[in-house]
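Schema walkthrough. Field components (list of strings):
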Amino acid sequence: MLSKREVFDGVPEEYLSHKERYENAIRNSVVAFSLVRKMQEEGKTSINNYRDVVGGLLGSSVLRDGSPLGLHYIMFMPAILNQANEEQQEKWLPRAWNCSIIGSYAQTELGHGTFIRGLETTATYDAATKQFVLHSPTLTAYKWWPGGLGQTANYCIVVAQLYTKGQCHGIHSFIIQVRDEETHMPLPGIKIGEIGAKLGLNAVNNGFLGFDNYRIPRTNMLMKHAQVLEDGTYVKSRHSKLNYGAMVFVRVVIVFDMVNYLSKAVTIATRFSAVRRQCQLKAGETECQILDYVTQQHKLFVSIAAAHAFRITANKLWLTFNEVNEQLVEGNLQRLPELHALACCLKAVTTADTAACVERCRLACGGHGYMMSSSLPLTYGLVTAACTYEGENTVLLLQTARFLVKTYQQLDSKALTPTVAYLKTAAAERFCVGWSNTTEGIIRGFQVVAMRVIIMSTFNEEVQEMSRTVSPQLKEVLHQLVDLYCTYWALEKLSDLLLYTPISQKEVESLRLRYEETLTNLRPNAVGLVDAFDLRDEMLQSTLGSYDGRVYERLMEEAMKSPLNAEPMLQSTLGSYDGRVYERLMEEAMKSPL
Amino acid sequence: MLSKREVFDGVPEEYLSHKERYENAIRNSVVAFSLVRKMQEEGKTSINNYRDVVGGLLGSSVLRDGSPLGLHYIMFMPAILNQANEEQQEKWLPRAWNCSIIGSYAQTELGHGTFIRGLETTATYDAATKQFVLHSPTLTAYKWWPGGLGQTANYCIVVAQLYTKGQCHGIHSFIIQVRDEETHMPLPGIKIGEIGAKLGLNAVNNGFLGFDNYRIPRTNMLMKHAQVLEDGTYVKSRHSKLNYGAMVFVRVVIVFDMVNYLSKAVTIATRFSAVRRQCQLKAGETECQILDYVTQQHKLFVSIAAAHAFRITANKLWLTFNEVNEQLVEGNLQRLPELHALACCLKAVTTADTAACVERCRLACGGHGYMMSSSLPLTYGLVTAACTYEGENTVLLLQTARFLVKTYQQLDSKALTPTVAYLKTAAAERFCVGWSNTTEGIIRGFQVVAMRVIIMSTFNEEVQEMSRTVSPQLKEVLHQLVDLYCTYWALEKLSDLLLYTPISQKEVESLRLRYEETLTNLRPNAVGLVDAFDLRDEMLQSTLGSYDGRVYERLMEEAMKSPLNAEPMLQSTLGSYDGRVYERLMEEAMKSPL
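Field assembly_structure (string):
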């Protein structure tokens, strides 16, 4: 399965047309999802199994630029599970489960993203026919972005403003058939297609969807929470905040995705840097491995540390989420705001950091990082998308800030939940305790500036915990990684530390020294550390990052797969060649009415 | 000419296959270069005319993803002009001029970029036949990257290690025929092709080139400077540093390119932000323009200021270059190190800043910035490439730093040239003069930390100069732009100012206030300021950035051009449709030996 990249006549997908890539994606997706079905048959029905196949290391190797069937598993089926009542689940889940129907999930509109209260699509109940009338009153009301919606799906969960008895009750979800199950033609009243080429994720078949007074049965509103009765009476949901859970889940999944992409990128760049040589220190000597330059180490090593830090923090968030989820089911919503803020913040910080780190890894490979065959441009395309989807990062950070300010204002009156307990210490310690250039000292400093402190302290605590059982050699390296992560960010956020903690100029200098020493100390283990991510060549799919280091051979082998190299002279390009091709082209061009 | 984007059957290029894009690029290039020929016929033979057509606003609109004929004009012909002797120029220039031959320029090898002394390709003189034998001893010796070399060029300037009489004389340039002029087939001994798909610049037809003991006449070595006589005697060049000029020229051109790309990106993002609305401040009100948010202003406005700052500084560098060039011709090399450092530094800073700014503009457009039809992903692809080519940025910054340190160490013994005169002031003033939150105060602070000070002070001086003649209203806006640029970077580089200047915490707070006030003051003129870049819709080619603000209409119109939307149901994808397509695909997939 892992060698399916070139299923399309042996030509890598980057050479195909948009349409061919879609055809390829459908074929690869079906292969990938047959694995999901197998797992289902073996009784592995947890959502984690999909995660592995669709978004995890395995999935992102086969479905390198996303999948048109992804949303069917990640959003369509979970939405039915979470929002449909039992009767509805019985009706729809088995058909979705065995792919008799293929679904998508449509919330965002052409003119409306972050501010979901502003969605324009309406679902108006008509008690006479017991139907909802779906309508897109404007162009900006068209659904825009849903994966698989373009040509792939025949059903879709649609979020729309619910109107009944002349009153608007805000947004609710509806399951809507968009294409005929037999002919796959769009149904009357449905305007549907794909949104066009994007920076990345071009295999996802993102679509648009508009409604022209399109009617669905009343029972197609997902009614686990709120309901509309036959006579049009609206019955409110008891727990309006229960949907937070799904949002938190998706964001945790994103953090794990970031860990995968970051591990990939830094593995590729580190291995390349061990192969690539540049400049002789003495005439006649072999050129140095670029990995020996401190500038290169500075570009790469923090990504190794960050991948571990993110994974450990995401694991903890996942555990916290499960705890809070149990409380939610019991009706206890107390920790929801904290969990929401935590998920917002981690999603924003990890996606932004990962995008920056992946791009730095790419640039650290020089020109070769610009080759699609390095896999680095594709990886950046996937990662930077995550800065925008499922909560735009700037908005998420503002939400986090609001939560922190609110908590800080209530410091005296309120018991603090574990993840924000540091605010109390911080308020008390600000400027009162001296600076210390130790990991703990740096973390204390970051408690004061309230930045990345959760990632740092979680990473540090977990490594302390692990240190008890591992070999002294491994313990040393683990501590070096924590050290590197903390000193790196202390230097990056130095202005905040200088403004709000008592760190002195002299301590800054020794912090810099300590950072560079840590880079030097990590150098001998750098390749070992990325090998330890244990990413098979088939998962990396990179000319620069393979385990055997045959960088230049692979670059040439990949180049030879370009269709432009299929014949020594491109007949098709230059027409019937008579030795005057440019002159003839020029002559023709001169005739153009410019 | 500006409406040629869709010459290929009305389908935008992002939907084409790699091969179709190349074919398209050849056609578009010939149209574009017919303009060059017209200009030549009208007697406009300056290199600036090529610059406008190939790399300028005009060129980058028609040749959106580069051109396979670009290097013919930008490198091949200039190399003949600068490095060939008169006899050689007479032989080659007329044929290159009228495109009887198409050339490329090959220096970088698969294994060697920055460290050009490490190039492996050899040119060994054989006095018996009066020929040079070109050879690629290893795979890493293959030339890699030259634009147009893949399938387009039939000649190439090749940089190789010159051997004669058993001795190596370092790298020299040779003009080499690589394809038959009649049949366009590669000549025996030549291994040639394209290097494959890249993050961007996919219309450039970058190629590789290897030699298998390939013989050329002695007279094909470019002999304006160094020479090899018939008997193999090597005659050294008198001015080994004369080639610096070409390098500086190319880097100045890059800075101007950056100004174009940055103006484009910020025009698109600013106009979009005036159209896009998000969140109601009060229920029932129209949603706000996102351009009214200070977070959005923070993302965008500095790019408007930077575009002006870069253009002004590049103009000054260009003037300095011409001055120094005249001195060079007279044999005065004194200002060469300074000019070289200046060009290195400006190239590195402007490409890195522009890449960051363009990507920020893209992300500021949310999901829609991810659409290829926004033109922002393509623009980023072009800009980020410039961080690596023509001098990798990290290496350039190290060279700049070395020059500055060297100058600083000789402060007392040496008269300082104009652009580094500030170092003397800086050395004297460090910590001695108080901080002042004025433009001049900030620039003085940056003199101490030796960062961006040339851009800041050039920008400020030029605006002061212009202020004498413009209206009071324009004067005010110009000063706001300088202010914005300086306060923005003061806050970005705050840790250096806190460490090395006497700026206080209170002054930092008022600096922040001043920055936000400047954003607010610029807001009413923001759209006017980007309109003033005067970029026609045909140059922007962006669904988000057009003058009339019809963002959503254009997004939908562009989406409809996707070949996937050509038919309501894709027969080709789903095969002969019987309503069980996914089931059948699944069944097939289940048969696969996984």
